[in-house]
Design brief:
This protein is α/β, with parallel strands linked by helices and 281 residues long. It is built from 11 helices and 9 strands. The strands form 2 sheets. It has a 7-stranded mixed sheet with strand order 4-3-2-5-6-9-7.
Length: 281
C-alpha cells in the first residue's frame, strides 16, 4: 500500500471511532488538500526531519510525507489514534515514527536527525506552552530550523503583533526576539471535525542565528511575563517586584516609568533586561 492508496480521513475516523475529544484539544483537519498546503508552507522538507505534535488520525502526517519529508516523528497522546497512524506508517516507506505519550514530557531528539523542522496542528490546550518552550531554550540556536504551527487566530495574531497594538504581548516579544514570524494561512472552522468556534491560522517562524538584541533569555522571559501580566498598569507598578529601585533602572534605560508594556519595543525590553541583570549583580 502507498500513501495515495490510504482511505479518506472521514472513513478512517469512522472505522476507528475517532470522535475528537475536547479534553485533548482535538479538532481534526480532514481535507488532504489543506494538509498538503500546510506542509508546503514549511518549505522544502526533503532534507529535514519533521517533528509533528498531535497527529490525530494522520491528516497532516500524510501531507508531510506526500510533500517529501525525509522523516516524520509524530508524538500522539491519544492511544485511540494509533491504529490509524499504523496504517500510515505501513505506507510511509519507513519514513514515519510514531511515539506514544505527552509531548510536554517527551524529548524527541533521540529520534530526530538535524536539520529539523517542526510542523504541527497543535492541540489547543498545550499549543502556547510548547511554543514558549521552543522559543526559550537555554542555548541558541535551537534544535529546529523553523516552526510551522496552527493556532487559534487570536494566538497567531499575538505572535506576530507589533508594539502599540492590543495583540502585542509576551508571545510577540519572545517570538520576534529570536525569529522572523508571519501568518501564512487562515483556515475556517468548517474545515475541521468538529468545527471549532474560531478561525485558525498557520504561523511560520524561521529562527535567527542569533537574537536581534543581546539579552539573558531567563531575565527577559521573566521581565515580559511581569510586564504583560498587568498590562494596563504603568511599568513602575507592574515591574516593582523585580527590583526595589525599578524607576531608576527604567529611567537609566530611557524608558519612562509611566509607560505601559504594550508600548515597549523588543529592543527596549532587551535593554531593560540587561540593566536589571547588572543591577542585581
Amino acid at each position: 500500500m502507498t500513501l495515495s492508496d490510504l482511505p479518506a480521513l472521514r472513513d478512517v475516523i469512522a472505522t476507528h471511532d475517532l470522535a475528537a475529544k475536547k479534553s485533548l484539544g482535538q479538532n481534526f483537519l480532514l481535507d488532504l488538500n489543506l494538509t498538503s498546503k500546510i506542509a508546503r508552507m514549511a518549505g522544502d522538507l526533503s532534507d529535514h526531519d519533521i517533528l509533528e505534535i498531535g497527529p490525530g488520525p494522520g491528516g497532516l502526517t500524510r501531507g508531510l510525507l506526500m510533500e517529501g519529508a525525509r522523516k516524520v516523528v509524530a508524538i500522539e497522546r491519544d492511544e485511540r489514534c494509533l491504529p490509524a497512524l499504523a496504517e500510515v506508517t505501513k505506507a510511509s516507506d519507513g519514513r514515519l515514527n510514531v511515539i506514544t505519550g505527552d509531548a510536554l514530557k517527551i524529548d524527541p531528539l533521540d529520534h530526530l536527525t538535524s536539520p529539523i523542522k517542526v510542523v504541527a496542528n497543535l492541540p489547543y490546550n498545550v499549543g502556547t506552552e510548547l511554543l514558549v518552550r521552543w522559543l526559550t531554550p537555554q542555548t541558541w540556536p535551537p534544535f529546529w530550523d523553523s516552526l510551522t504551527l496552527m493556532f487559534q487566530k487570536e494566538v497567531a495574531e499575538r505572535i506576530v503583533a507589533k508594539p502599540d497594538s492590543k495583540a502585542y504581548g509576551r508571545l510577540s516579544v519572545l517570538a520576534q526576539w529570536r525569529c522572523d514570524a508571519k501568518i501564512v494561512m487562515e483556515i475556517p472552522p468548517r474545515a475541521f471535525t468538529p468545527p471549532p468556534k474560531v478561525t485558525s491560522s498557520v504561523v511560520h517562524l524561521t529562527r535567527l542565528e542569533k537574537p536581534r538584541f543581546e539579552a539573558d533569555w531567563s531575565v527577559l522571559e521573566h521581565l515580559v511575563a511581569k510586564a504583560f501580566g498587568q498590562r494596563r498598569k504603568m511599568l513602575r507598578a507592574s515591574l516593582k517586584q523585580l527590583h526595589p529601585d525599578i524607576e531608576s533602572i527604567l529611567n537609566a534605560c530611557d524608558i519612562l516609568p509611566t509607560r505601559r508594556a504594550e508600548t515597549v519595543s523588543i529592543e527596549e525590553f532587551c535593554r531593560l533586561a540587561n540593566a536589571l541583570k547588572s543591577a542585581r549583580a
